[in-house]
Amino acid sequence: MLNREQLLERITADPDVLVGKPTVRGLRISVEQILAALAAGVPAADLLDDYPELEPADIRAVLTYAAERVSEERVYMLAAA
Questions:
Q1: Residues facing residue 24 across a β-bridge
Q2: Which residue from 3, 11, 42, 58 lies 20 to 30 Å from 36 (Cα-Cα)?
């Protein structure tokens, strides 16, 4: 089983691929696309069938990447004027 760092290495961003959006292993499959499908209830098995170049570890990588981004989020309280 791949560790966190190995999973995150599967997510790439290249200005020449999908305008630099994070993608899975440089493929034209974006992290956003996979997350949106999973959020809409598409089973991971269906995604793997629909995108034969995807591997189960890629879906784990997308989820790991999303968790990392959310963990970096900060909320600051602003006083009302």
A1: 11
A2: 3
pTM of the complete model: 0.88
Checking phi first, is residue 38 left (phi over 0); if not, alpha (psi -120 to 50) or beta? alpha
Reported confidence tier of residue 38, pLDDT bands at 50, 70, 90: very high
pLDDT in tens, 10-26: 999 999 999 999 999 99
Q: Which two tokens stand for residue 35?
A: 């997350």
Q: Which residue has the tokens 């791949």?
A: 2
Q: Which CATH architecture has domain 4-67?
A: Orthogonal Bundle (1.10)
Contact (Cβ atoms closer than 8 angstroms) between residue 12 and residue 26: yes
* Whether the Cβ atoms of residue 60 and residue 10 lie closer than 8 Å to each other: no
